[in-house]
Amino acid sequence: MSSPVLVCALRGADAFPALAAALQGWTQSRDRLSTVDSLPRALMALSPEVTFRQAILFFTEADLVTGKAQFYDCLTKLTQICFSLSEGDSWRCRAESLFSYLQAGAQVLCTVLLIKPGLWSRRLPGILWNVHLEKFSVVGMKHLDLEAATASALLPWEVQQDAAAVKAHCAYLTSGTVLVLCLQRPNAVKKLMDLLGPEDPQLAQALDPRLWRAQYGTSTVQNAFYGSRSYPMAVRDVKLFFPEGLCCAQCQTVQEQEV
Can you tell which superkingdom this protein's organism belongs to (predicted)? Predict the structure, then answer.
């Protein structure tokens, strides 16, 4: 070869379409900037199977580490620095084989679905049927009355910047009993977010009438559901609503994150 290449092993939600979109945008920008073949070109694996075969050509298990890590001086070092836990350290990392991860498939995760006041008492059978069809397991369930502070903490960041919106949302969330479900399945957090759709039921209706907020929501305030928006928030929500534990053993990833 006339010049060296850089090989990266990347990991993330929807990794293949996300990386493909990023590379397409980068390629278009490169082509506009240069009419000669002097800028780098990138190739990516197109499936988990191809990724596995290519990864074992370039990496050993000792090269690949996952966990809580940060990248320092990535433009010069291009090295992932992982801090190992020792007594008194604030970071923890557990070595893991990427090859085993690729073979194991998606991890089983927990997430939280909160059904807002006035809805669950009327539409619960249909909601639970939707939950079942999407292959979620219900591993925790309780109905409770939210306090204003808890209701406020559930609001999206952009809503929390508007005092009037916060007041309206909190008034509704504390107006009656809510039903909280802890759901479990592979890729549970993202799957639930995809099913709920946008916070605005009208926008959800325009995107896809089958989205849950399109079916059950009536306004941006009375939009039927709250769902954990990320994995760290799902861990927080499980601890918040189910401090006594779940009806089955929690998945390993949740237990590790809670430490």
Answer: Eukaryota
